[in-house]
Amino acid sequence: MSFDIDLTLRRGNRTIAARIASHARLVALFGPSGAGKTSVLDMVAGLVRPDAGRIAVGGALLFDSAQAVNLPPERRACGYVFQDLRLFPHRSVAQNLRYGERLAPPERRFMGLDEVAGFLGIGHLLDRRPRSLSGGEAQRVAIGRALLAGPRFLLLDEPVSSLDAARREEILAVIARIRDELGLPILYVTHDERELARLGAEVVAIGG
Ligand SMILES: Nc1ncnc2c1ncn2[C@@H]1O[C@H](COP(=O)(O)OP(=O)(O)OP(=O)(O)O)[C@@H](O)[C@H]1O
To answer: In this structure, are 9 and 67 located in the same domain?
Structure first.
């Protein structure tokens, strides 16, 4: 199973709950703003601890409250592309990518920097600083940094919500290639139904 997740988290006066049991390579978490989609990604990444539940991805158990299993984020091997990207502003695109590369243990390095740059079409941007990039270019650099870290799966938080229609299609095509050519399971957050249709995603509703 690609995603086998059942968790709850109390935040303020609401309870965030998610149940995902899927063999699909791309599963979309869909729901209104504030429903808890980012919180679910944070729990899968190991940045926020669920109150209770179980998280397994690609057959690897990452968290189980009943068995007292709670792998730290660096042992979960997830490539997390945050909604605000979090590129290092004072470093070049190449340095941002190398940061990801350095995180990857040798046995999980399935792509080199040149290959990732070619795959994502960012080879001409390597000397630029993030602030000089367009939204779509910055998104591709953030995805590249995540891929270079040798992930076993990807967490993508609203990766196209800030882009115009043309750039949106460009990034969705990249995401479809990551799913089809690299075969990485992807957990994808959106509140836009057009993206679900475009990606043919399996949909899990959160909150609402
Ligand atoms: N660190 C925190 N402490 C307490 N409450 C939080 C924290 N982070 C988020 N929340 C609350 O948890 C709820 C879910 O937030 P979350 O960001 O997961 O939702 P979301 O579905 O991703 O929303 P959006 O689509 O707007 O990004 C919100 O009510 C939010 O205010």
So the answer is: yes
Is 173 among the domain residues?
no
Closest Cα to atom 3 of ligand 1? 11
Cα separation, 154 vs 59, in Å, equals 15
Q: How many structural domains is the chain composed of?
A: 2
**pLDDT under 50 in the chain at which residues?**
none
- Domain containing residue 9: CATH number: 3.40.50.300
Nearest-Å Rg of the Cα atoms of the chain is 17
Asked whether residue 95 falls in the same domain as residue 137, the answer is yes
- Give the nearest ligand 1 atom to 40 CA: 18
Does residue 59's CB lie within 6 angstroms of at least one atom of ligand 1? Answer: no
Beta bridge partners of 56: 4, 61
Report pTM. Answer: 0.94
ipTM for the predicted complex: 0.92
Cβ of 11 below 6 Å from ligand 1: yes
